[in-house]
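Batch manifest, entry 17 of 40.
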Amino acid sequence: MNDILCPTDLSETSLHGLRYADHLASRFASSISLLHVMGKKELTEEGRSNAKDRMEQQRSQITKSPTVVHFREGDFISEIADESRKGHSLMVCTTHGLRGLRQSLFGADILKLVRHVEVPTLVVQAKSPEQNSFAVIVMPVAAHPDIEHLLTGVALLAKTFGSTVHVYQLVRPGESPSDELLANKARMVEWLGKEGIAVKTVEEPSTSFSVGFSWPTIDYAKRVGAGCIAIMSVASDEYRYIADAEKERLLTNEPGIPVLCAK
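Output type: structure tokens
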């Protein structure tokens, strides 16, 4: 396992993502790259000094893992995406939710951010559980042509924590799943099985005629005590017209279940 990238906006909320990164890095025997992209107010001598002080305060919260600190200037999404191409195997970050400030690193731009990052990303919230064994990972079936990055991230967590992966399919009344979706479902089960990961296939009848998939997925994950929901960050052709809203609901889900995503 290579380094874990952990962007921070230096807020108290971002500390939760840092603790998750520390927890994962200790299990992976990995290091952490703590990254802060400075805003306009920090591009003064005093601003830089204050940012460095706050970064050191955050680094002091890491108790288990070697850590390297990085400062960048520029557009935060571009800078984080660029750093994600430099040998990291996973990114961990916190979202403030859709009500977060636009200029905040992890406000409403969280979906845009994870779509630019080159490695799987674990998104946590301030309300995500302090202790997480990742015993169950819920992985909704998707019709994307390329799901290897997501499967790689899921396998990394599942093999490390001994997780059971629930390959989850929502079955709507009167609707036949596409050939692409069924092929990916079989592919997920086979791929995970070859990795020696416990798999449970779930076909859950929909209780409504809504085309959305986020609420049923969140509800199921909550019922089974999932430590993580694993999704593609980009839209499939099947649900492109509703994908952004649905994925934002998953990333900022009310129970605070962490979400692993990849493009």
